[in-house]
Amino acid sequence: MEDNYLNEEQIKAVTHEKGPLLVLAGAGSGKTRVLIHRATWLIKERGVKPENIALLTFTNKAAGEMTERIKKIDSKRIELGFSGTFHTFCARLLREYGVNIGISPGYVILDSDDSESVMKEVVKQLDLDPKQYKPKVFLAIISRMKNDLVTLKEAENTAKEYFYRQVAKAWRSYQEKLVKNNALDFDDLLVKAVDILRIDRIREVINQKLQWILVDEYQDTNKAQFELTKLLAGERRNIMAVGDVAQAIYSFRGADYKNLKLLEQAYPELKTVGLPKNYRSTQFILDAAYGVVKNNTNHPTMRLSATREAGEKVNLYEALDERDEAK
Length: 327
Known about the structure:
This protein is an alpha/beta fold and 327 residues long. 48% of the residues lie in helices and 11% in strands. Strand 2, helix 3 and strand 3 form a beta-alpha-beta unit. Helix 1 crosses helix 2, helix 5 crosses helix 8 and helix 6 crosses helix 8. Keywords: ATP-binding, DNA-binding, Helicase, Hydrolase, Isomerase, Nucleotide-binding.
């Protein structure tokens, strides 16, 4: 399907006026097309300045693809106010405003290997057995708490079991080392960006710059990212969240599809548009997939309809073992 084509449901999403909008998009339903058309529609039809639009995604690849597709739709060179990942946005925000919370503009960002090296040193200094108190496990627990916006003090005050008291001790020592070296880890980028945006005068400046917030793969956001997008939308409340609860893949980073529900609580006036048409798979495949997810009562499901022919029926093969499965 060409980028310039939009079906009825997609048009509803693209031409939504002001205010919060949730687009529930099934797999292969053209959600990326909706996002890029939303941006170009705001610019061409509503006179929105490109620099007033922010497009937040989870991968640089996705952001790059969307930027290129926007250029194909509009021959003019369009430069959005921001187009990239959450972490890239937060990193830039902290470079400019981090000094307000004690972060030097020249801070360094630790990757996962760097973080593990620091935590190994911490575990050693705390005289803990690294086989019993694994640095990776400590980091995973701390990461989850950071993404849930749990503070270090809160973790220390609520740690009842011995293991979690050690986690809290390790967290404090780990964070002290990061501060000493003017460093932040990936989770700190989100947490500190939220702290920055909670400062009224800074948030007002950012809200004036970025008046339209478009968020891809919203089902993969965690609490910190949810709070970040809410602060970015500000009083204008011009946020468009596109998500598919059946495709949540970042649970290891604290992602929670319940954020889709939290949107309804944060924005009582929230409009919802569903994209049930699938342009990728056959109806037999879609029906088989729906049969698997429809009984999951923990989150909403959407029955998709194929635009292609029915195709071949899906066959179920029960393998005897891993070797048989690999054949």
